[in-house]
Protein 1
Amino acid sequence: MHPRYLHGAATSSEVGVYAFAAAQVKKAMEVTHYLGGENYVFWGGREGYQTLLNTDMKRELDHLANFLQAAVDWKKKIGFTGTILSLFLIF
């Protein structure tokens, strides 16, 4: 809901927004692991822009794929054995 994510978080073309979202996920995964959580769920809500006329879907999907891959890599690095689920709605 934060205005910084108006045009997506994991799909954002703004590196500062993308990095901030990644830092939030990193910390949340660490806390989930520390507390013994069994799963980590990405509830993406709405990613992307108001209309397809002002975006590049391939770029957005590439950003999302890189974001999720980084999360899986971090999961392995910290030894979190839980399941990662992602529920994204791309507009």
Protein 2
Amino acid sequence: MQEVSSNKCFGGCTKVFSHNSDELKCPMKFAVFIPSQAEQGKVPVLYWLSGLTCTEQNFTTKAGAQKVAADHGIMLVMPDTSPRGCNIEGEDDSYDFGSGAGFYVDATEEKWKTNYQMYSYITKELPALVNANFSVQVGNQSIFGHSMGGHGSLICFLKNPGMYKSVSAFAPICNPMNCPWGKKAFGGYLGTDQEKWKEYDACELAKSYSGPRCDILIDQGKSDNFFVDGQLLPDNFVNACKENPSCSVAVRMQEGYDHSYYFISTFVEDHIKHHAKYLKN
């Protein structure tokens, strides 16, 4: 693990590291905000998953999350969204598949399965790296994300009962099996068998979730073009959660807000406070 950059920030430090990933078979970067409380003892961890086209930098530089995390003594970890530079034919051809669009699944199709193992990277390799190298409370972690990363945070939580203390999302792709983005990604990474798709669809996972009761927070902008165009489908997730008494979801529809980081920065304090309730309990 090599340090790429370090900037003092709200009493702590925002750093970027690179490492050679065993899961993805390529170099990867992730950003981390280390609050000053980590100098005195171990702190909880909150993982952030970004959306299509993003890197480890978008949330780190645009969301304004470090001050809130510093106030609560929470470490933030912000990984990249896909493998990079793997020399796979077509990996850079479109914004919504390949580079910058890993969709947080473990690919099974021959062309992609060697490198595109983002689900295992997020749930196994990255936490192991963080636990081994930073002053964190092992096992005391939560997860949230935006758009494709909102989808990622929901599935990581729902597929692993007890691994994360809490989950939230901004404008998540809630039902990828039934939207254009998801159909393209799942078809490319997982193949044509839609039974395999169900393993990474938050609506399907919510119906079968059997872990501790969870209170999921989602913010969705009413002026989000992708919401209007049917890419996000939060109502489908609400209905899926209604079928399972262990899943409680609050979807806050925010008048006038779009899909951008202006939206995220407006409500990021609410989300970190939501996670702090569980991480600091």
Protein 3
Amino acid sequence: MDSSSHKFYHEHGFDSREHLETYFSSQQEIGFGDDSMKFPMECLHRAFSEGHIKGDLLIDISPGSFIHHLYTASGFFKQILVLKCTEQCIMELNKWINTHTGAFDWSHIMEYMKCLEGNSDQCQDKHMTLKTAITKIMKCDTDKENLTDPDVLPPADCVISTGMLDFISRDQDDYIMNFRKFVKLLKPDGYLILMGGLNTTYAMIGQDKIHMFKYDENFVRKVLADEGFIIDHCAVQKRTTVSDLSDYKAAIFITAHRE
């Protein structure tokens, strides 16, 4: 399948439950856990533990319905606002928040949390802490200059984006344009956390081959610098998963603030 046949997440959507089962499942044979869950959670734990990234409001702009990256964050922000491109992703996430039958089971994340925080009793409360912290889930339109038009959001202390720029950007110019929309949601002294896959062109979700914008570490570093951001921390983990479901070469994690 050539790139012209790829589907675009923000235009065509994808099966959000299939996405969860494929890339965030507890099933050992799937094997994406180290790259998609363990690595970002370790990086986030370290970033938040330093004490600089905290405040009243965190805005998350990520594809699909995954929430593992928000567990640690829920202890450092009074409110978490989640933006989603599709109604299906919102419905899937609401199932989990409201503990409905058939909601995706995130209990395996507690094993990661125990390794990071070392207190099993506190870890058991993390599900409720996160559910309480997520005060609103909103539909967004990444084609609009104001992502939540006509609603205007209060500026955030931190914006997290896990792979959204990878999914919705067609080329370098598109990535930069989308990046500028995302950072408009930040306070002048706010922090940006970016996560994604390096040198990726696609991700399989069910039978659909979903487009991913291919970029390397140097490109994203240059975008941040050109847009007035200072990188506080950058970590890259080479791919550990053996699978043809996606062709990413490494996972990247960046925290940055405006100069």
Protein 4
Amino acid sequence: MQFNTLGNSNLKVSQICLGTMTYGEQNTQQEAFEQLDYAVSQGINFIDTAELYAIPPKAETYGATEAIIGNWLAKRGRRDDLVLASKIAGPGADWVGHIRQGKSRFDDKNISEALDNSLQRLQTEYLDL
């Protein structure tokens, strides 16, 4: 696997990033664990997720992807070997009204709340991105 330094940081990320938006909807936790195990065994260290996932976004699966990744991290104990990226949901009351009562914005309050909730679901103390 080839790695690149991310911007001006000291983070080395695999050229392939594992996207996880289907965990909790199209993929079960067991399937997600298999995919994560395989990706890491092949040298991938960069995992992307979002509070919005699973896709398509709906209240019943909100945060499911991060929760599955958190369960995997807790079981495998590989957190320090990975670069973990997540994203918050922006404004979208018309299609993600279930996130922060449809009042999600890119402001201090929403960013802090989203980050705290993501860290809980991911069962980690930090995100890399």
